[in-house]
C-alpha cells in the first residue's frame, strides 16, 4: 500500500468513526474561593486576553478575513488611553474559537435583521 493510499484509508476510517461521536459542550462555574491565587490570576488573564481578541476582531477591516496567525500581537489601549502593543499567550484553539463565535454572532444578527427583528 502506497503512502497516499494509506493516508486516504486513515481519513476514511476517521470520518466513519466521527459519524458516531456526539458533540457535548459543558458550561462551568468556577468557585474562586477554592483556587490558588496563581490559578485565579492565570484564569482572569485568559478572560482579559479573550476580551482583547474580541475587540481586535471587531476593529479589523474585514472580520471574515481575520486570521489569528497574523494577530498574535495586538494593539489596544492602556488605562491612560495610550496605544500599547501586547503579545497574546492564549492557546491557538481558544483564539480560533473566539474568532469563530464572533463570525457566527454576526451571521445570526444578519439573519435576525432579514427576518424583521430590530438589531
How would you describe what is shown here?
The chain is 53% helix and 8% strand. The protein contains three helices and two strands. The model has no long low-confidence stretch (mean pLDDT 87). A hairpin with a 5-residue loop joins strand 1 and strand 2 (83-87). Strands 1-2 form a two-stranded antiparallel ribbon. It has one domain. The protein starts with a helix and ends in a 5-residue tail after the last helix.
The radius of gyration computed from the alpha-carbon positions, rounded to a whole number of angstroms, is 20 Å
Helix run count: 3
Helix content: 40-55%
Shape: extended
Structural class call reads mainly alpha
Mean pLDDT score = 87
Strand residues, percent: 5-15%
Strand order of the largest sheet: 1-2
Total number of beta strands: 2
Distance between the termini: 56 Å
Domains counted in the coordinates: how many? Answer: 1
Tags for this entry?
two-stranded antiparallel ribbon, 119 residues, mainly alpha
The gist of it:
By secondary structure, this protein is mostly helical. The chain has one domain (30-114). It has helices spanning 3-19, 37-59, 92-114; strands spanning 73-77, 83-87.
Explain the layout of strands and helices:
Elements: H1 3-19, H2 37-59, E1 73-77, E2 83-87, H3 92-114
Antiparallel strand pairs: 1-2
Helix pairs in contact: 2-3
Amino acid at each position: 500500500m502506497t503512502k497516499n493510499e494509506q493516508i486516504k484509508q486513515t481519513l476514511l476510517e476517521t470520518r466513519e468513526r466521527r459519524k458516531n461521536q456526539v458533540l457535548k459542550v459543558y458550561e462551568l462555574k468556577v468557585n474562586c474561593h477554592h483556587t490558588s491565587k496563581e490559578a485565579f490570576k492565570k484564569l482572569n488573564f485568559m478572560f482579559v486576553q479573550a476580551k482583547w481578541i474580541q475587540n481586535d476582531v471587531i476593529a479589523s477591516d474585514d472580520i471574515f478575513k481575520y486570521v489569528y496567525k497574523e494577530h498574535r500581537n495586538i494593539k489596544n489601549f492602556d488605562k491612560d488611553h495610550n496605544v500599547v502593543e501586547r503579545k497574546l499567550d492564549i492557546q491557538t484553539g481558544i483564539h480560533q474559537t473566539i474568532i469563530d463565535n464572533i463570525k457566527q454572532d454576526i451571521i445570526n444578527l444578519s439573519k435576525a435583521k432579514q427576518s424583521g427583528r430590530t438589531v
